[in-house]
Design a protein that fits this description.
Layout (H helix, E strand, L loop, with lengths): L7 E6 L6 H17 L1 E2 L2 E2 L1 E7 L3 E7 L7 H18 L8 E6 L2 E6 H9 L8 E3 L6 H7 L1 E3 L4 H6 L4
Helix pairs in contact: 1-2
Length: 159
């Protein structure tokens, strides 16, 4: 399945790392969901994937059918179910994710600020921009150096 660069993307970040077994089970749930995901009776061209055992990413190519409020609500319901089943927080936008030596680390906003203040997170540190909305932006602006991210604007006074 190929997707347009303008396909819609939604990213849900876990506050904890899923085990490989959990990733496998969650991926099965997501595959089942996207295979039947519809908007006003029209099948969505959609996929869901898990990256780094932390991020659940939905992609919908709206060229064939666009996601609607009801279809988006359906995706939120499956994410809430995963949250409950696996005891993970997938909606806390105050959790920040960054990489150290290729490993993803998720911390709360206060700890993130402290890490910036003590120079553990630098302008070169890779951070995740979970606010990207298109596949093209996901591919080019999701994992970026701190200096090129929205984080730099919000936390600039701590550098």
């Amino acid at each position: 399945m190929s997707f347009s660069p303008q396909s819609k993307v939604w990213i849900y970040q876990s506050d904890r790392e899923f085990s490989d077994q959990e990733v496998s089970a969650i991926q099965q749930q997501l595959d089942g969901f996207t295979a039947q995901w519809k908007a006003h009776g029209h099948q969505l061209q959609a996929k869901a994937e898990i990256r780094y055992n932390y991020f659940i990413i939905f992609t919908v190519d709206e060229a064939t059918a666009g996601a609607t409020g009801c279809s988006i609500d359906a995706s939120v319901r499956i994410i809430k179910g995963i949250e409950t089943e696996y005891g993970a927080d997938l909606f806390n936008r105050f959790n920040m994710a960054y990489k150290v030596d290729g490993k993803v680390i998720v911390v709360n906003k206060e700890d993130f600020e402290t890490l910036i203040s003590i120079k553990n997170i630098t302008p070169d540190s890779i951070v995740f921009n979970n606010m990207v909305q298109t596949l093209e932006d996901f591919q080019t602006k999701w994992e970026v150096p701190f200096r090129d991210s929205w984080h730099n604007k919000v936390f600039a006074d701590l550098l």
